[in-house]
Amino acid sequence: MLSTRTALSVLALALVSACGGGGGGGVAVNNSAIIGLTVDNATPTKLVVANADKQTIQTLTLSSNAVATLAGTANTAGSADGTGTAAKFYEPFGITLSGSDYFVADTYNHTIRKLTSAGVVTTLAGTAGTAGSTDGTGSAALFYGPKSLAVAGLNLFVTDTSNHTIRQIVMSSGATTTLAGYAGTPGATNGTTSAARFSAPFGIAYDGTDLYVTDTGNHGIRKVTTLGVVTLLAGSTAGTTGTTDATGTAAKFNTPTGIVSSGTNLFVADTGNHTIRKIDIAGGGVVTTLAGLAGTSGATDGTGNAARFNSPVGLTIDAAGNLYVADQNYTKIRKVDTTTGAVSTLAATF
Fold first, then answer.
1. Which positions ≥6 away from 235 have C-beta within 8 Å?
2. pLDDT digit string (tens) for 25-48?
3. What is the pTM of this model?
């Protein structure tokens, strides 16, 4: 099997797959793969990290760079609900915060887990080890390699990557429905609910009105209303890769993965280009490169195109507008000033 980092480096083809984690089956490994990030703006401010290959959810206190494990057992995969190290995950990719609770896309368990701030883990929806596309409540619902989540009101929205769909979950009950896309049928069609098509959707963000999805296999950014109306915001209509900064369909991406909203702008981890892109939502989808140099990977801290990234993936943003990026083949977290494009590396080890 491929490790998570290797699979992600293969980019779109591996992202479609829901199999191939490096720490599965309870086999001890030393890999660390930071995929999903969310920020807890409580005092002290923390990042909460989905460490896929380590099979854990970790916290990083920003004032001290101290890393701790909130739930899961390092390097031991499983599906058990429980508290702290008694809980088990299998390649958790995405994480988001709602109130004081976290929700995790437990990708290779094909489930959505709930995690309290005290480290108590339960399964909200899906059946561990069973892939599928069934709508239903709790364990009656089935997923296939879910990657990312976003909160909108009382609902979670999930990129069900290997089903090529966007799913909606009522957080209070686990009732799951398919918002957009048609399970098992990839494509690039704009449309409403099951008439729309995606190809390995990965990241998802909510700006207070609409959802935005990195349609990774199509190298585009799709807009999805909460009623399931899907349109292309930016990127090629033909699934063409590129590096072009421009407006709407004139802009080009290369395997975009993570996405986050600041309310007025979207920020995208353009993984295959090793850059962080900015999209002006109100401006009709104007795309610019905030940091990094397209086609050139590296680890350099700097401002704008003087900075270098290596396969950036997960993104989150804090209350002050600072962007945090899972980078360096998923082993480091970078901080990006969204005003200046200045990039620095957090001194934390996972």
1. 215, 218, 219, 220, 221, 249, 251, 252, 253, 256
2. 333 445 889 999 999 988 899 999
3. 0.93
